[in-house]
Write a structure and sequence with these properties.
Strand order of the largest sheet: 1-2
Shape: elongated
Structural class: mainly alpha
Number of helices: 2
Radius of gyration: 18 Å
Number of domains: 1
Helix content: 40-55%
Number of strands: 2
Strand content: 5-15%
Distance between the termini: 59 Å
């Protein structure tokens, strides 16, 4: 019985490593055609951690269009969506303090 559990755990670990590598490769590819656009994410629909560091996961934005929350958009389309670059968002947050 214990051997079966060890084999199952080893298989699960191997599969998860493969998925993590595929996700990393996907993220690297996306940064060539995508950019972070701040201030356009809807509540619960941000793409990852925010600028203030109050959370580090996607989907945790508490309100719509908060300066520190972001979504990936096609490069060059952020301004048209009413968003800001990383530097602009950092400057706006700094001005609020």
């Amino acid at each position: 019985m214990q051997t079966k559990q060890i084999l199952s755990s080893a298989l699960a670990a191997a599969l998860s490593l493969g998925l993590a590598q595929a996700a990393s490769a996907h993220d690297a590819k996306d940064t060539k055609t995508k950019e972070k656009c701040y201030g356009i994410a809807k509540a619960g629909q941000n793409d990852c951690s925010n600028l203030s560091g109050s959370h580090s996961c996607a989907g945790l934005a508490k309100a719509d269009n908060v300066t520190e929350e972001w979504n990936y958009v096609d490069k060059g389309s952020c301004k048209a969506k009413g968003g800001m670059s990383t530097d602009e968002a950092k400057a706006k947050l700094k001005a609020k303090k």
